[in-house]
Amino acid sequence: MRNCNPCLRLALPRRKTVTMHHAAYVFDAYGTLFDVHAAVRRHADQIGPDGQLLSEIWRAKQLEYSWVRTLMGAYADFWQLTEQALDFALRKVPSADKGLRAKLLDAYWRLDCYPEVPAVLKALKASGAKLAILSNGSPEMLEAAVKSAALDQVLDDIYSVEAVKRFKADPSVYDMVTTGWRLYPGAVSFQSSNRWDIAGATKFGFRTVWINRSDQPEEYRDFPPALILPSLEGLLAAG
C-alpha cells in the first residue's frame, strides 16, 4: 500500500507531533479516499459537455442500487452495480458516446485518490493508530484501487461488504470492524464523505467525521457527526 500518482504527492507542513485520540481510524473508500468522478474526467474530451452529468448519474444509481438490493435482500456485488449504473447513465445521457463504456469501467479500477490522502494516512499510521477501509466495494475493486493509489503499506485491513452481503448503512457492515478488531465502537473514528454513511455509523456508535468535500447541506440531524471537515487533512489537528 505505497502512494498516489507522483503528481499528487504531498508533503505535509512541519507540525508538532499529533496525539491521536482513537485506537483506530476507518475510512470509507469511494468519495472519501478515491475520487469517484475521476473515471469520467479521464475521458472528458471524448465524452463531451455532459460528462459531469453522466458521472453524477452513474454515482447516484450505483448507490441507489446498493440500498434497494439491501432492502430486498437481493445482494449483488458492487462491481455488478457499477456496471449496471453506468449502463443506465449512458442511456440517460444520449450525448455521451456509448463506445466509451469499456474505457470508463477500466478507469474505475484505477481511480485517483485525493491529494492529501497519502500524507494524512501516513501520519495517522505513524501515530500508532490502526487504519482500515470499510467499503461497499468488492474485494477486487478495493484491492485494485488501493494498489493503484499505493496505499497498501499504510492500511492494516480492508473490510468489504462482500463478507456480510449487505450494503451500508446496514449495522452488520460497521460491526465487521468492531468484531474483527475486538474494539468498542467508541474507540473507532470513522471518516466518510457520504452523509448517509455518517448517519449509519453514528447510530452504530462510531465517532464520526463527515468529510464534506463538496459543501453539501446538513441532513440526518438526529445522527450528527462529531466533526465536519472539508478534507481529510484537518483530521490530523482534530485527532
TrEMBL record:
InterPro entries: 2-HAD, HAD-like_sf, HAD-SF_hydro_IA, HAD_sf, PGP-like_dom2, S-2-haloacid_dehalogenase. One of its GO terms (molecular function) is (S)-2-haloacid dehalogenase activity. Pfam families: Hydrolase. It is an enzyme of class 3 (hydrolase). The keyword Hydrolase applies. Keywords: Hydrolase. Its EC number is 3.8.1.2. It catalyses: an (S)-2-haloacid + H2O = a (2R)-2-hydroxycarboxylate + a halide anion + H(+). PANTHER family: HALOACID DEHALOGENASE, TYPE II (AFU_ORTHOLOGUE AFUA_2G07750)-RELATED, HYDROLASE, HALOACID DELAHOGENASE-RELATED. This is (S)-2-haloacid dehalogenase. It comes from Mesorhizobium prunaredense. The lineage of its organism: Bacteria, Pseudomonadati, Pseudomonadota, Alphaproteobacteria, Hyphomicrobiales.
